[in-house]
Amino acid sequence: MPQTFAPRHAGTLATSVLILGAAVVLPQTLGLFTLLQLTVYAVMAILALSLSITWGLGGVLCFGQAAFFGLGGYTYAVAVTNFGESTLPILLAVLVQALVALCLGWFMFMGRLSDLYVGVVTLCTSLILFNFANSTSDPWYRIGSAALNGFNGMPAIRGINIPFLPGALLSPVQSFVLTMLALLAVYLLCKTIAGSSWGRVVAATRQNPLRAELMGYDTARVKLGIFVIGSAVAGFAGCLFVNWNGFVSPDVFGLSMSAQIMIWMIVGGRETFVGPIVGAFALQALVSRLGVGSEINANVVLGGLLMIFVVLVPRGILPTVRDGLLSLGRKWGPGKTREVN
Amino acid sequence: MLEVQALHSGYGRIPILNGVSLTLGQSEILGVLGHNGAGKTTLMRAIAGFLPATQGRIAMEGRDLTAAAPFQRANAGLGYVPQGRQIFPALSVRENLTVAAARSGRSVDEILALFPRVARLLDRPGGALSGGEQQLLALARCLCTGPSVMLLDEPTEGIQPSIIDEIIETLQTINREQGVSILLVEQNLECLAALSKRILLLDRGTIVESIEGQAVHDEARLASLMMKA
Amino acid sequence: MDLVLILTLQGVVAIATILLFSIGLAIIFGMMRVINLAHGEFMMIGAYGAVKSHEAGLNLWVAMLVVAPLVAALFGLVVERVLIRHLYGRLIDTLLATWGLSLFTVGVVTMIFGNTTSGVPTPLGTLRIGDYGLGQYNLVIVGVTLLVLALVALVLKRTSAGVLARATMQNPEMIAALGYNPRRIYAATFAIGSGLAGLAGGLLAPLTGVIPAMGVAFVAKAFITVISGGAAVILGTGTAAAIYGVISQSVTYVSTSVIGEASLFLAAIILLRLLPNGFAGRFFKGGV
User: Fold this and answer.
1) Nearest-5° angle of CA A95, CA A101, CA A106?
2) What is the pLDDT of residue A300?
């Protein structure tokens, strides 16, 4: 695999400006319904980025990213119901997931589990949570004043308010802007990590763990670190999701949730950070289009795309298109050749 | 028997063989000598079909095999004993042989007559044999497929001297009694000299010298050629 | 006393069920290093094969024991040819692509048959032990599972096809050098594994009901059982099934079935940590 995630400042800047521009301009031009849809797409783009950190950058095959997403959602829901204010709950959604990932990751990486086993363990974790959350219908299952409600889910969850002002709940438009800014922040976080010297150690560990180990890096610790960061970001996405939805149910832990995240990543391009964002937006738009008065089942499209991309375009749209353009540029453009990755 | 013309091959885009040509005659034992990295194993794998030929031609008895899959080449009579023997470790010695003989219909017992040492180990798992025993088993297994040409990739590598002599004798018998032609890649000069009447020197992916007649026994000269190459 | 007997029987049934729906996956994984996350959908296709052919008037037993595996095996042949063939040696990609296949198949079957439950009547009556009862059909499942296991073991151990299969498992390149086409062997293996998944789907149809998404309930458990089992198809998978069956059944007895299932996954996490190469890597090196 070629060296990937190389910092390309021009590209990063362009993407940042694009996200920021959308956050500012779109509320003026689009209707509320479209904005609401775009909000959840952006939340899922953050979720896709979280797997980009864990799997794309860190090479940790996490089949249970939904576990951290869902737990983030539940953490926020329980906390905000108890506190009646959203600042601390948001922090908790992130911190609790980092802590959970630290414990689980310690167990997995210090035990030197192979990639496949890490996949199985993370999958099991999300299934346990799914099963557990489904079995909490009994009113006995409550944390403080928040009843978990089993498979019925927790309804009417407070949204995010302006920090420390419980009365100032964000409007849907403000939520959209907040989510877009969060997406920008997470994107820049990804870029910063990948461009840092630690990020290069992470990439080295992904590409050749043995060699990285022989160079004196503790690969287990490196993987643990990237796993914790990715999971914390997933928890953050979960919290934003519940803010958008006002509702959380065990479905957030489901297999199809984890599958979707992988599909966005693979279709967009798992070697980049823009790819998963594009994948998340494009595929959700496609699925919601299909949902309206169509005979075609969304699963057929998603599953079909996943198969096609794994077999025919394993690098995903963005890297393939980019390299295609670059090689065209080399062919037709002026003499200066640019190093591809 | 086996004809290789201007063969190019390599791993991915990295070329290893740059136009190797050789002809293996009926019942001939042809040696190929080269130091590490000269392309010996690549040559064997390309002839056996596990590496695609990017250019050139491979033919057996006039039949073009350049594009054939490994199993088709095996069925055309090309036997391959790879480096490191590649015994099926969890199969018994007998099963290692029967799986090879099932296709050709050759009698395992007949072949075992040539390998008394292997015949005593039939019920042991292949992985429990010593390196030398495994090498003998690999030769016997290859013979079970009924080949007319055998490709041997360093059959004496890492094997104790007493068994090396046994391997050399066995190969001579196979060659003499069954008329099997052998293409032998080696770094062991003694083994090469004992078996082949003709030795090709392989360096950086091409044949740079052909040694024939008495010269094959001049180990000092072979060694210096290999060093220079 | 009756209670002990019935609990033991239930445990045996639980183990047999896990084994039944894992064995096909175990064969495919053990031999080809391909993990088929669409395994549950192969079961679902078998189940639909059984249901639809029974509705069309076929004898229920024939539908479950013959049609279900055949339909799934044919489906497997097509899938191997179109999809899996491109992915040999890329373990993680097989996982992803078959995950896609799983979604795709569920979607297509939903479009054809709708998202409704089709049922098959549970044949046979109830076995009474004192105050307790156990469906006699459960015992049929145990019987068929034992038969399948015995057959697989016999084929692998005693027939030349089995020796060939085990040899391919250990070194596919060498098998090609001996004149066999590994692709044909893989295609056959995949079809057999798929057929066994279909058989499991057909046999379990009366107990679970048949809906397009029914596979989801099995795939994770089968996946975990097979990975925990490691490379030994029968001994490894058998041990894993036994441990998970006993654990989930006992926990179910003292709490609920949902918690029982969760305990199975928890046990898997702990087991994988203790045995990073599965049971086969630790106890049955080179066994089948």
Assistant:
1) 130
2) 87
Domain count of the fold of chain A: 1
The answer to whether residue A317 is domain-embedded is no
Chains with ≥3 Cβ pairs under 8 A against C? A, B
A–C contact: 3+ Cβ pairs < 8 A: yes
As a whole number of angstroms, the longest Cα–Cα distance in chain A is 72
Burial classification of residue C18, based on how many CB atoms lie within 10 Å of its CB (0-12 exposed, 13-18 middle, 19 or more buried): buried
Give the mean pLDDT of chain C: 86
Size of interface B-C (CB pairs under 8 A): 71
Q: How far apart are CA C266 and CA B189, in angstroms?
A: 60
Q: What tens digit of pLDDT does each residue of C137-169 get?
A: 888 899 999 999 999 989 888 888 889 988 988
How many structural domains is chain C composed of?
A: 1
Beta-carbon separation of C265 and A304 below 8 A? no
We find that the CATH architecture of domain B2-228 is 3-Layer(aba) Sandwich (3.40)
Closest CA of chain C from B79, distance in Å: 7
- Check whether C281 has a pLDDT greater than 70: no
Interface contact flag, C83 A307, Cβ < 8 Å: yes
Residue A299 located in a structural domain: no
Whether chains B and A touch (3+ CB pairs under 8 A) is answered by: no
**How many Å apart are CA A68 and CA A55, to the nearest integer?**
14
Determine the structural domain holding residue A14 and report its residue range.
9-252
Q: List the one residue out of A160, A151, A109, A148 whose CA is nearest residue A130.
A: A151
Helix (H) or strand (E) segment spanning residue C268: helix C257-274
What does the pLDDT look like over B166-192, one tens digit per residue?
A: 999 999 999 998 889 999 998 888 888
Can you tell me whether residue A175 is helix, strand or coil? helix
**Measured distance CA(A188)–CA(A200) in Å, rounded:** 16
C-alpha span between A132 and A148 (Å, rounded): 10
> What are the residues of chain C with a beta carbon less than 8 Å away from any beta carbon of chain B?
160, 163-164, 166-167, 170-171, 173-182, 285-287
Asked if the structure places residue A333 within a domain, the reply is no
Contacts of A125 (CB under 8 A, 6+ apart): A64, A67, A104, C265, C269
Q: Does residue C231 form part of some domain?
A: no
Residue A260 identity: Q
Distance CA(A204)–CA(A201), nearest Å, equals 5
ipTM of this predicted structure: 0.88
Phi, psi angle pair for C128, to nearest 5°: -100, 130
Q: Which residue has the tokens 């779109």?
A: A26
E-state strands within chain A: 142-143, 146-147
Q: Is residue A14 in a domain? A: yes
Structure tokens at C154: 């016999």
Residues C221 and C159: beta-carbon distance below 8 Å: no
Give A132→chain C minimum CA distance, Å.
Answer: 7
pLDDT averaged per 10 residues in sequence order, chain A, 341 residues: 57 83 80 86 93 91 90 91 85 92 89 82 85 80 78 79 75 87 92 90 88 87 93 94 86 84 90 89 85 72 90 85 80 49 37
Residue C244 lies in a domain: no
Nearest residue of A to residue C228, measured between CA atoms: A117
Using CB atoms, which chains have 3+ pairs under 8 A with B?
A: C
Alpha-carbon separation of residue C200 from C15, C188, C215, C243, C247 (angstroms) = 13, 18, 11, 20, 21
Identify all chain B residues contacting C176, using CB atoms and an 8 Å cutoff: 49-50, 69-71, 74
Residue C176 lies in a domain: yes
Its domain, for residue C116, covers 17-214
pTM: 0.83
Note every long-range contact of C136-139, with CB atoms under 8 Å and residues 24 or more positions apart, other chains counting.
Answer: C137/C206, C137/C207, C138/C9, C138/C13, C139/C9, C139/C13
Q: φ, ψ for residue A339 (rounded to 5)? A: -65, 125
Contact B23, B65 (CB under 8 A): no
